[in-house]
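User: Fold this; tokens only.

Assistant: Input:
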Amino acid sequence: MAKKSIEKQGGNLPGKTKSSGSEVDAFLKKLSATPTTKTPGTKGRLLFAMDATASRQPTWDRAAQIQGEMFHETASLGGLEIQMAFYRGFGEFQASKWTDNQKALLRLMTSVTCLAGETQIAKVLRHAVNETKKKKVNALVFIGDSVEEDVDQLGAVAGELGLMGVPAFMFHEGDNPITQFAFKQIAQLTNGACCQFDASSAQVLKDLLSAVAVYAAGGRKALESLAAKKGGDVLRISHQVKGQGNGGA
């Protein structure tokens, strides 16, 4: 299991931490510095994956509302195609078709009921690899609260995804130290970023997911425009993106 893998590597389990402004700053800084590979004139492609085991129902319901905001923020950038993927129950893993239809994705998300089961993050990462082999995926977003898999094995697949130029933006709900360690490893290996949130920081999650969606659709310049419009946490992006070079249209 994950704990055994961490101990085998000789690493110390990180202590419990709470969501903080500094962690949000670090996430936004990493996002703004991540190069985009979107082809001009095409829609960005974002793989939106979630843990749908039993503990995830409250966050799943929030994410169903948030994804509508992601479509809205990217409409003026040429649009965004999203594929939703999730796992739940006994080995169940599903992925939708790629779509730029907000209502269709919302109907799908609201039809899913979370079921008890173990994590299947390796399947998410492998699916992202396979999808990118078919057509470029600009970013992977994953939301979860637990890791019950071998971290070394997750790292191997994450490394492959990183070599393909697909950053994974890992959103960790809660303060489980093993989960935090594993998510940060995946983010590092894919040149992505990791951020913790909790039930009291739903607005932060909304803003950061919108920022990732805008990044996937339009690059750093689009992030600057979003920051000017939204303010709040996203406003911090404007201080990170200036002078960063060609980050996309």
